[in-house]
Design brief:
The chain has 229 residues and is of the alpha/beta class. The chain is built from 8 helices and 12 strands.
């Protein structure tokens, strides 16, 4: 799957590119709308992620209008700091398929990306929305988490943390990467915030199941991973 990201903030653009590539997407990045349109005219993309406010002659909404006028049906996700209903309506009426307000957590971006790609894929399967490892499953469509037959009630942040682990099973994830992907990119996180939420998650997916193997492991000096020791 090939994705184009058009975002003038270098830090955000490169963070999105790095995160998408970790999910095995092929990503091009442009920092201006004119460069983005050149990419679109030369390359076939499965999805475009556009910032609303862009230099280069067109903003994100105008880019979407031009794409639709030129006959491109590529799904578009708009990113913006404007979160008013009227701003969202303008983007969607211009032809965008989804709208994500800044700041956002990377796991939410990935969920939106996967949903758009499924929606526009010739073959759709609910199996694509279910992440699993060992006997724990997470349904991205229904937000239901189960260990074996037992339903587990998680808070949104606990859910996002587990989702990120399930997207990267058996990989040692550095604390900085987890924070960057689960919390919004400009969130003010205290040094022990991650450890606290790891404890919350373990108390719900491991403590009630003492007869089963622990799932979230600590790699001292490195970070955490989902897997068996």
């Amino acid at each position: 799957m090939k994705i184009l990201v058009v975002e003038d903030d270098y830090k955000i653009a490169n963070a999105i590119k790095r995160g998408l590539e970790q999910q095995n997407y092929d990503v091009d990045v442009a920092y201006r709308s004119d460069d983005g349109m050149n990419y679109i005219n030369k390359t076939s993309y499965d999805l475009c992620i556009l910032d609303r406010m862009l230099p280069g002659g067109l903003d994100g909404v105008a880019m979407v209008r031009k794409m639709r006028a030129d006959g491109y049906s590529t799904p578009v996700l708009l990113l913006t700091a404007k979160s008013r209903i009227i701003d969202k309506a303008e983007g969607l009426n211009a032809g965008a398929d989804d709208y994500l307000a800044k700041p956002f957590a990377f796991v939410e971006l990935i969920a939106r990306v996967r949903a758009l790609l499924r929606r526009h894929s010739p073959t759709k399967s609910n199996k694509e929305t279910v992440l699993s490892y060992s006997n724990i499953t997470l349904n991205q469509a229904t937000k239901q988490v189960k260990r074996g037959p037992h339903i587990i009630d998680l808070t949104p942040k606990e859910y996002a943390l587990l989702e990120y682990f399930l997207l990267n099973p058996k990989q040692v994830l550095q604390k900085e990467n987890i924070i960057e992907n689960v919390w919004s990119y400009d969130a003010d996180i205290l040094p022990n915030t991650l450890e606290v939420y790891i404890g919350y998650l373990r108390s719900k997916i491991e403590k009630p199941f003492s007869n089963m193997k622990p799932l979230v492991q600590t790699k001292r000096g490195f970070g955490y991973y989902l897997g068996e020791k």
